[in-house]
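Worked example 3 (structure in, sequence out).
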């Protein structure tokens, strides 16, 4: 939470609870105390208070009755109800009618309560700063907790990208490029490390295109046996080879009027690349065992995690095919370059896997989130999703735990004698800039030396505070 001190009103008919609360949190918040709801309302009439916490079972006015009056007169403060009883009926009414942010059971735990109070202050600030978020907050209140609300910001572009969530400027630029190219027939080459979501992006590109009502056919070039890949792609006639007992359409024919996604294109055998190039140039296919051609109207999206330029230099990939596929390149940055997406991805995966795991996780301790952000994620988004699903299974209660992953998720900054990832990146970029005399883009520029998109490099320089 920011250095600014927020004010908290605690209403409880037990003086010992009030004293303990003030002693515990007086250094973190401005504390107001009241033994009855009536006293609490008087304090609110005379002071600016951001968070109100009240006991449910009080003699003169229950917590629910107090919050009903509070909402009518002071709707702004974030509200927390405290109870030592399992009175779910009252709690549900309080949540629905009074917009309760959270409920806690007595006796309260100091660390848990401090965490909830800090999140409640953030919720208050969000309401104050952005009025349009109130509706989203109310929806979150219906789920009994808003602790992760600030994680739920999704990409807002012209189209709905469904399962793609981000607030990264780098990835927003990627999605904007997807929008620009979607309704063309231009071939697209998606590059990025394993696990960055290349297939997900290809599906999004197809879904927002004018071909969305026609098939999207996926081919994993790395998974097909070399002797079958030609038949799989282009089809075969009956008797074309041993076992070809009937005529069969290939993936390109099945994708007619739609899109074909050639995943792991860098793994395609060199001898088949010439045939693929001809299909792309002529927009027609010839089935194995046939001398006839069939016209096709297919949009091609290819993806790879390999450096195809290096594969070309080694003679493993045709240069002419590369240029035919790479008409509109889209590079997905690795997760370590968009760490700001990790919190919203964590929240997304918690919701996604809740029905699968059969458990709801709605609390993410700050230490856990920091560990996730500081990890370098060699497996990118796929690895993050696997970690979250595994953690949901092994966690106890409703709090996300990563204790079983501590040995697998070291943070660079905690290792003596090592630079942080950010510091290492900064020094590496500076070295490249010095070698290129601070030429960022263009031939022999730092971006080319680092094998980065110039826009990506400019963004990283700005984020790392690198100036000439």
């Amino acid at each position: 939470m920011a250095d600014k001190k927020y004010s908290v009103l605690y209403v409880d008919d037990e003086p010992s609870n009030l004293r303990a609360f003030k002693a515990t949190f007086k250094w973190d918040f401005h504390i107001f105390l009241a033994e009855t709801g009536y006293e609490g309302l008087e304090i609110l009439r005379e002071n600016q208070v951001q968070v109100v916490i009240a006991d449910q079972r009080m003699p003169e006015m229950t917590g629910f009755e107090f919050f009903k009056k509070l909402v009518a007169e002071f709707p702004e403060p974030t509200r927390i109800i405290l109870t030592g009883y399992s009175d779910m009926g009252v709690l549900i009414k309080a949540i629905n009618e009074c917009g309760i942010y959270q409920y806690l059971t007595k006796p309260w735990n100091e660390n848990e309560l401090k965490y909830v109070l800090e999140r409640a202050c953030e919720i208050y600030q969000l309401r104050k700063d952005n009025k349009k978020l109130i509706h989203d907050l109310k929806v979150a209140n219906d789920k009994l907790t808003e602790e992760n609300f600030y994680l739920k910001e999704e990409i807002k572009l012209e189209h709905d990208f469904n399962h793609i969530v981000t607030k990264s400027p780098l990835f927003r630029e990627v999605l904007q490029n997807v929008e620009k190219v979607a309704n063309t027939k231009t071939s697209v080459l998606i590059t990025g490390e394993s696990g960055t979501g290349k297939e997900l992006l290809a599906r999004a590109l197809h879904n927002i295109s004018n071909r969305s009502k026609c098939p999207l056919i996926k081919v994993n070039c790395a998974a097909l046996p070399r002797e079958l890949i030609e038949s799989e792609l282009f089809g075969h006639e009956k008797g074309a080879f041993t076992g070809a007992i009937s005529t069969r359409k290939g993936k390109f024919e099945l994708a007619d009027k739609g899109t074909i996604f050639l995943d792991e294109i860098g793994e395609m055998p060199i001898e088949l690349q010439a045939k693929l190039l001809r299909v792309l140039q002529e927009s027609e296919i010839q089935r194995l065992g046939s001398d006839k051609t069939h016209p096709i109207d297919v949009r091609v999206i290819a993806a790879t995690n390999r450096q195809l330029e290096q594969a070309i230099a080694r003679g493993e990939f045709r240069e002419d095919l590369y240029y035919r596929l790479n008409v509109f390149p889209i590079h997905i940055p690795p997760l370590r370059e968009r760490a700001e997406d990790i919190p919203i991805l964590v929240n997304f995966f918690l919701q996604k896997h809740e029905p699968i795991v059969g458990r709801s996780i709605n609390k993410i301790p700050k230490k856990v989130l920091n560990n996730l952000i500081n990890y370098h994620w060699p497996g990118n988004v796929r690895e993050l999703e696997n970690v979250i699903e595994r953690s949901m299974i092994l966690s106890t209660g409703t709090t996300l735990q990563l204790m079983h992953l501590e040995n697998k998720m070291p943070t660079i900054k905690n290792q003596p004698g090592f630079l942080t990832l950010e510091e290492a990146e900064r020094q590496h970029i500076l070295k490249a800039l010095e070698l290129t005399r601070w030429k960022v883009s263009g031939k022999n520029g730092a971006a080319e030396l680092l094998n980065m998109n110039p826009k990506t490099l400019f963004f990283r320089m700005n984020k790392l505070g690198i100036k000439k």
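Notes: The chain has four domains: 7-147, 169-331, 335-410, 421-463. The first helix runs from residue 15 to 25.
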